[in-house]
Amino acid sequence: MSAPTEERREGSLEAPTRHPLYWQDPGFYDEEDLFDELERVYDICHGCRRCVSLCNAFPTLFDLVDESETMEVDGVARQDYWKVVDHCYLCDLCYMTKCPYVPPHEWNVDFPHLMLRAKAVKFKQGRTRARERILTSTDAVGKLVGIPVIVQAVNAANRNKAARKLLDKALGVHPDALVPQYHSRTLRKRLARRDGLEVTAEPTAATRGRVALFATCYGNYNEPHLGEDLVAVFEHNGIPVRLAEKERCCGMPKLENGDLEAVRRAKEANIPVLARLVDEGWDIVAPVPSCVLMFKQELPLMFPEDAEVIKVRDAMFDPFEYLMLRHKEGKLSTDFKQPLGKIAYHVACHLRVQNIGMKTRDVLALVPETEIEAIERCSGHDGSYAVKREYHEISMKIARPVVNRVKKAAADHYSSDCPMAGHQIENGLGNGAAPEHPLTLLRKAYGL
Questions:
Q1: 447: how many CB neighbours lie within 10 A of its CB?
Q2: 351-382 pLDDT, tens per residue?
Q3: pLDDT number for residue 12
Q4: Is residue 329 predicted with pLDDT exceeding 90?
Q5: What pLDDT band is residue 4 in, cutting at 50, 70 and 90?
Q6: In a domain, 206, yes or no
Q7: pLDDT classification of 5: cutoffs 50, 70, 90
Q8: Which distant-in-sequence residues (6+ apart) come within 8 Å of 60 by Cβ?
Q9: Which of 94, 176, 206, 267 is geometrically suited to a Cys-Cys bond with 51, CB 3.0 to 4.6 A?
Q10: What pLDDT digit, counting tens, does each position of 226-240 carry?
């Protein structure tokens, strides 16, 4: 009688887990070792193909395989592996919603972090274009463009077809892509000289009842009304809010570029400020899901032994996650003055990855005479992917199912926690109707 064989499973039933990202290990940048791992994972993906509808990385891989002589991964030229990498924008949905082979499964597939490793190798080799470096330098661009005379010229140029064609030639930014507006009156200027609501904080089991706002570079320079809406809503609920003394970009744009040293520099600028606020008794919120995810997931995986990083991770909240935690203990105001009607609500990828559930939907559903239709599909934006000349049309194809759902909903409002995703939907609709952020809608419901 033969010895029993170890049981092998087709897929894992356990919750996905993440391994630390050992990006400072020299072997992390070994291209031959990287290619071996890419081949291993690509072969698993080729045999599964569950992720084909998520983004363009997987169709690119499967086309390369199907058009090769062997119709297997071994028939694909290794230099073509980069074509797959270039289409991954680290939305993380394959890891969190589709792949049956993520750890703790023995095959240990973490496609997004493998793509991140490949991007880091490419960046270290000096093969990242100047355009990528410019588009991801959000603080530098925001400060320069935010100068009053310059901001008017830039915003006007971004709406001018001739100027956009020149931008396309110079920088490879597609002329049909919506690009963010800039403001000289930033959120930091709008909230200057304020220390928060002068009331006693009321803690709950999961919240300390007073909040430090990490503005984010986007919230500071591009859509400062998001921070103003957040402050209005939180203070209406008796939650004192203060602005963190300073901030740099959270590092997500540089992470998606593979510039991990720039992520480290951003971490060294932000974490001491935020950790000190935590020590002083403040919780931390940020209005952009990608920035929250950076502190909740990516930095802790890059710096797993940094106690200050872990401290900030444990005190970082999505705004609606925070409000819903308060609501569970009866500390959310429900004195809504205005119904919102029907809302077509796009659930941002980097919000889904936080594994907190649809807290935005749940809070908005508390408003009387309000119906929310949730749309759980990627918009294809990613901050910079959708504006690049070679990827814009692909990004709009990825967004099409979301846009079609919004059209079909015929809602009074359409919204996304990710402001960039909201504008991607706006671009797809093409009817001049602008998105309204959930914080803006909640402020409107309160009549503030």
A1: 10
A2: 999 999 999 999 999 999 999 999 999 999 98
A3: 63
A4: yes
A5: very low
A6: yes
A7: very low
A8: 83, 84, 87
A9: 94
A10: 999 999 999 999 999
Q: Is the dihedral of CA 166, 171, 176, 177 positive or negative?
A: negative
Amino acid letter for position 97: T
Name residue 237's amino acid: N
At a CB cut-off of 8 Å and minimum separation 6, what does 3 contact?
none
Q: Are residues 392 and 358 in the same domain?
A: yes
Residues whose CB falls within 8 Å of the CB of residue 6, separated by 6 or more in sequence, listed in order: none
Alpha-carbon distance of 363 to 336, in angstroms, equals 12
Tell which of 325, 349, 381 closes a domain: 325
| Cα angle for residues 131, 133, 138 (degrees, 5° grid) | 110
Whether residue 365 sits in one domain with residue 289: no
Is the domain of 350 the same as that of 432?
yes
Q: What pLDDT, in 10s, does the model give residues 35-51?
A: 999 999 999 999 999 99
For residue 166, what are the domain limits?
130-171
The neighbour count for residue 216, using CB atoms within 10 Å, is 26
For residue range 162-184, list pLDDT tens digits in order. Answer: 999 999 998 899 999 999 899 99
Cα–Cα separations (whole angstroms), residue 355 to 15, 88, 254: 11, 21, 23
Task: Report the run of H or E that residue 141 belongs to, with start and end.
Answer: helix 138-145
Contacts 24+ apart (CB under 8 A), 136-142: 136/253, 136/254, 136/256, 136/257, 136/259, 136/262, 136/384, 138/217, 138/218, 138/221, 138/249, 138/253, 139/217, 139/248, 139/249, 142/182, 142/186, 142/217, 142/220, 142/221, 142/222
Q: Is residue 378 part of a domain?
A: yes
User: Where residue 390 sits, what CATH number does that domain have?
Assistant: 3.40.50
Q: What percent of the chain has pLDDT over 90?
A: 82
Q: Which of 15-24, 330-339, 399-408, 410-419 has the lowest mean pLDDT?
A: 15-24
